[in-house]
Please model this.
Amino acid sequence: MANIRRMTKKRLGELLLQEGLIKDEQLELGLEEQQQTGELIGEILVRKGYVNESDIARIICTQFSFPYLSVSHYYIAPELKKLFDLETLEKYLFVPIDKFGDVMGIVIAGLLDQDILDEIEKKTKCTIQIYVGKVSEVKQVIREKFAEEGRPAVAGGATMQGQAGAATAVVEDVTAPPTAKGAAKKKKADEKEEVGEETAAAEAGVSGDEEKSDDAVVRELEQQFKKFRFFDDDPKKKGEEKEDTK
Model:
């Protein structure tokens, strides 16, 4: 707790000046923008390119003996994702990561005021254990692991939700009553099926006529053949054939 109290009395800009990482005019520009946007000074200085986020994390760790934690690789329990709204997490750049009894661990990307820490402890009814992370990693975790809980999502969270919706397959409800469009489609299909059956029947009819025509030709040939046999069986002719053999 002593380290936390010391942290709340310090200003990150002052620490960066002491380490020679930024200049006075850069800090002044950062503070002016902070008055307009309400962002943390560290986030502004990193965005402007005045300082590296790794340097900010290192300064906080060494000044207050807080451990560093790469929060993007840390598992966060689902119940912890519902403790704070996105606006609070994004404004103060911290995330709750774990809870051990009445002690809660949070990862910060900048120095927090005592009022903010008191509000966190009051809300969670826990003593706070602080870890330090990079600005980009903390923002990424807020966007990817906390926006998914159904609260207002940032741009990245909205895009993912859209790709998931786009990937959802459409399932037809076969138990629902047919719509006018569906009925018309079914009627068209039935008409097409009836035309197909009539076409098949017509083709079958033509084939039957062809078979009947062949049968008629066979019968005609048989009749002609019988006529030839009739002449061959003529008794007079047979008698003449007998006389010739005598």
About this structure: Residues 180-245 form one domain. Residues 4 and 98 are 18 Å apart (CA to CA).
